[in-house]
Specification:
This protein has about 200 residues and is mainly α. Helices cover about 75% and strands about 0% of the residues. α5 runs antiparallel to α10 and α7 crosses α8.
C-alpha cells in the first residue's frame, strides 16, 4: 500500500471512530458533523471528503456492525461430526456476540435509530444475510441425511428466532444482556427443538 493511501485510510478510520463516539453519545438525530470533525481532529471539509453526509457515516456503522455478526458465523457443515454438536457450535457463535455488553449496547443504538428512521439503512446498501450460515448448514445436513428438512430457509429462520427471541429482542428493548450461562441454556434448548423437529 502506498504511503498516501495508507494515510488516507487512517484518516477515514479516524473520522469513522469519532462518528461512532458521537452517535453513541448523542444518538443519530442529535449528532453533529461539527462535533465529529472536532473529535476526529479534522476539518469539516476533510470529513465530507470521506463521508458526504451524517447518513453515510451511520450507514457505515450499520455495515460494520451487522457485518461483525455475519463474520462470527463462519461455521460450515462437517459430515464427520455429530450434527447436534455442530448446531450447538453454530448457536454458540451467534451467542458469543449476543452476550457481549459492548456489542449489544451498539445494537440497541442501531436498532433504535433504524426503527425510528428506516431510511437510514440506505436503498443501495449491501444487505447482510444473517440466515446464510444457518441455512447452509441445515441444507447440507439434510442432503447428508442426518436431518430431514423440507425448507432449510424456514428451518434457519426458526433456529435463529429461538435464540434471538430470548437473547436479542428483549435486550434491544431494555432487558439485561444475557449471561454466558443463560446463553448456553438458550442454545441447548434451541438445538433440542430443532433436533426434535428435523432430526432423523
Amino acid at each position: 500500500m502506498e504511503p498516501h493511501t495508507c494515510a488516507s485510510e487512517q484518516k477515514r478510520e479516524q473520522i469513522y471512530q469519532a462518528a461512532v463516539v458521537e452517535f453513541q453519545d448523542k444518538g443519530f438525530s442529535e449528532a453533529s458533523m461539527d462535533r465529529i470533525s472536532a473529535r476526529a481532529g479534522a476539518s469539516k471539509r476533510t470529513v465530507y471528503k470521506y463521508f458526504e453526509s451524517k447518513e453515510k457515516l451511520f450507514q457505515e456503522l450499520l455495515r460494520r456492525h451487522w457485518g461483525r455478526f455475519a463474520a462470527s458465523l463462519d461455521v460450515t457443515y462437517d459430515k464427520n461430526r455429530d450434527i447436534r454438536d455442530q448446531l450447538v457450535a453454530l448457536g454458540r457463535a451467534e451467542g458469543a456476540l449476543l452476550t457481549n455488553p459492548d456489542v449489544m449496547a451498539m445494537t440497541r443504538l442501531v436498532m433504535s435509530e433504524v426503527l425510528r428512521s428506516p431510511e437510514l439503512v440506505g436503498e443501495n446498501q449491501e444487505k447482510t444475510d444473517f440466515k446464510a450460515a444457518f441455512e447452509r448448514m441445515l441444507r447440507d445436513a439434510d442432503a447428508d441425511g442426518v436431518l430431514v428438512i423440507e425448507d432449510p430457509k424456514v428451518a434457519a429462520e426458526e433456529f435463529i428466532s429461538l435464540i434471538k427471541g430470548k437473547a436479542f429482542w428483549p435486550v434491544v428493548f431494555g432487558a439485561a444482556v444475557v449471561s454466558a450461562e443463560e446463553m448456553e441454556q438458550i442454545v441447548e434448548g434451541s438445538v433440542e427443538m430443532i433436533m426434535r423437529r428435523y432430526g432423523v
